[in-house]
Amino acid sequence: MDPAFERHCSELVARERSGHTAVVLDSLLYVWGGYMSIADEEVFIPSDEIWVYDLEGGIWFISMLCCSSRLIYFGGYGHKVLADITSRSRNFIPDETSWVDDLFWGWNNEVHVFDPVKGSWAEPQTHGRPPAPRAAHAGATLGRRGYVCGGRVMETRTNDLHSLDLESWTWTEIVPSSAAPVGRSWHTVTAVSESTMFLFGGLSVDCRPMSDGWLFDVETKKWREFEHPYQDKPRLWHTACGGRDSDVVVFGGSCDYILLVDTGHCNDALVFQMQPHPLFRICEDYIAKNVRTLERLRKQLPLLPPKMLKALQRRISFYRPSKKQSNN
Asked: Of 22-31, 70-79, 227-236, 244-253, where does the model show the most confidence?
């Protein structure tokens, strides 16, 4: 990478935010939208701004690229009358029993599907007993099933877990065979294998920002707490995406209860290692971390094949010293 361009990119950092969306594709984390607070004013991030984080090079840049796939939405909190008007324009009427709270505002448990290619919405007819209406829940997809975990309904925060067959559109409640995490909202659940999901953070039933991590096995139906190095970094209303080698990348969010103290928006990326890394990555990371201090490694770098050298140079950039370290 050109040194001048690398210096420019190292100075670019996506602004802190909560309530955004994110997705990982080919070692790139795409971040869109969100909310932040400036001088006690609510500010929404411009919708035409897409930030991209290179998970190998450790740099941010702005992109105008966007990838499309079928989007499935469940539940949420909003204006009931507006939802009804929008639904009528799409030729279906929401079921009154799918909403709770008052006449105009409330939580719902509806399922809606958006096709970005056709630019159209649909509401599939679901079967079985759906989860109770809620918002600020977390969801993930494993194979042909979608999963909904926790969330908030009025003053209640739950820890229940439900699955939706995305072919038959049938709901099933999952009863864990082990102790489960405490109820929460504004957390994330991320698929890390064909049968495992990772839960991180959120706001607990007693309104505490959480930093705990949990793994759930959909085959054994067991939860187990996951040890990680970010116990001092609570997060809520953040995003989490599956990355390289089954890592989970958490970006943004808040570190405090934003409805009471809205000063803790974050813009750092936390990477959770879910499983032992392949030998190639272990070697790659060792070289990238130590090449600046070991002269022998620096002399041997030019001997590598061009493709491997290019990949390694990006990894070296990821481990570059911070401005604070450089000034010491």
From this structure: 227-236
